[in-house]
Amino acid sequence: MTSHTPHNAHKYGQTSAQKVSLDEYLGPARLQPKLGFWSVTALGVVTTSTWLAYVQSLAPALVGGGIVAMLWGYVLVVVMGAFTVLSLAECAGIWATAGAQVDWVYMLSPPAWAPCLSYTNGWLAVFGMGLLGLGGEAIAARAILSMAQLSHPDYTILPWHISIMGVLVAIITAIYGILGARMLDKTNLACFCVFVPLALALMITLLVEGSGNYNSADFALTSFNNATGWTNDVIPFLSGLATAAFAVIAFDSVAHMSEELETPARDTPRAMVLAFLANNILALAIIFAIVFTITTDLSDLALSPSGFPILDIVYNSTGSIVGTCFLISPLTILWLQCTADINISTSRSIYAFARSDAFPGARFFSVINTKLDVPVRAVLAVIAVQIPLLWVNVGSSNAFTAFITMPAEALYLSYGLPSFLMLVRGRKLGLDKDSAFRLGPILGPICNLIASVWSVCLTVFLILPPTYPVTAQNMK
Fold this sequence. Notes:
mainly alpha; two-stranded antiparallel sheet; globular; disordered N terminus; transmembrane transporter activity; AA/rel_permease1
C-alpha cells in the first residue's frame, strides 16, 4: 500500500489559487489510468441513470403537480441542468482531478478564502454523493421487494425489510468497488449496451399495450394534480421538482473518476456532456410514453402500497405479473450498477479530500491499495456511514426520507459555487482559456450565471414543505 498525499505546496491553506498542471497537483503517486473515453461516458450514463431514477421515484411529482410536474418540471430541471453541466465541464477541462468541485473551488477562490470555501464545498459534495448512494440502495431494495409483493399479494413490505435488503445492496456495491475496479470499464460498457435497449423496450411496451387507448394530449401535457393540501398550485409544483432534481444530479461522477483516464482534461468534460445528453434524451422519450399511456389515478399511483410507481404503471399496462417482473428485473440490475458507481465516485471524492488533508483521518483514508489500485478504506468509509442510516427507516420513515431527499440540495450547491467563482474570478484571471472544453466569452458567463442562480433557487424549492398543513413530520 502507498499513501497518496499531495505535495506540501498544494495542501489546503498553503498556496494561493493558481494554474497548475495535473502532474504538479497530484505528485508522483496516484490512481492508475484504467478507463477510456467511452467507458467513462458509459459510467456517467449509468451513474446518473436519469430515466431509471425518474421512473423509480415518481411519487413526489405525482402528488405535487401530477403530469405537469412530471413532464414540464422535468424539462425545466433538465434545461437548467444543461447550463450547469456545461459550466462544470469547463472547470473539468482545466483541473481533471478526483476532487472535482473541491479542487475547482480551491483554485478559483481568492487565496484567503480558498481553504474555507473548498473545505465547505468538499463536505457538500461528499455528503451529497454519499446520501445519493443511500437513496440508490433504498430504491434497489424497494424494487426487489416490490416484485416479491406483486408475485405474492399476501406479502407486506415492512420498513425493516427495506433496511436489511438495503444493507445487502451496500455490501455488494463495496465488494464490487474493491474487487471489480479493474472491470469497471467493461461492466459499465456492458450495462450501457443494455441500458438503451431496455429503455426502448419499456417505451415500446407501454405504447403497444396502450394502443387505441392513449390519453388525450390535453391530459398528457396539461393535467395538474394537487393532492398536497396546499390551496395554491405553485408550492406543490416547486416541491414536486424533487423527482426530477434527484434524477438529473451526479454530473460530477465522471469528474471524480478523471484521474483514472488516459487523457483526463480532454475526455472528462466531453464525457460529462455526452452522458448528460444521452440520459436525458432517453428519459424524455420514456416520460412522454408514460404520460400518454398512464391509466391509473395519479393520487392512487403515488400512494401505491409497493412504493414503486413504475411497477404499477407497467403492470397496469401489461396486466401480467411475469411480464412486469421480466421488465423490472433488468431495471433493478442496472440500478445496482448505478448505485455501485455512485459509491465508487463517492470513495474517490473522499480519497481526494483526504489527500488534501481536509478529511478526518486524512492519512488513513488517503491510502491506496496498490495491488488492487483502489482506495479500499475510502470505499469502506462510504458504506460504514450508509449502513447505520439504512436502519433509520425502521424507527422513522420520515427521517429516512429526509436523508434520501437531501442529496439534490447538497450537490447543486456544490455545483453552484465553482460556477459562481469562475464567473466572478476565474474569467478575470483568464483561467477559462486553459480549459480543454472552453465555452467562450459569451456562452461561458451565461452558463456560469444560470448555474449559480439555479443552484440556490432549486435548493430553496426543494426544502419547501411538500404537504399542508405543515407539521414536524412533513417539514423537510
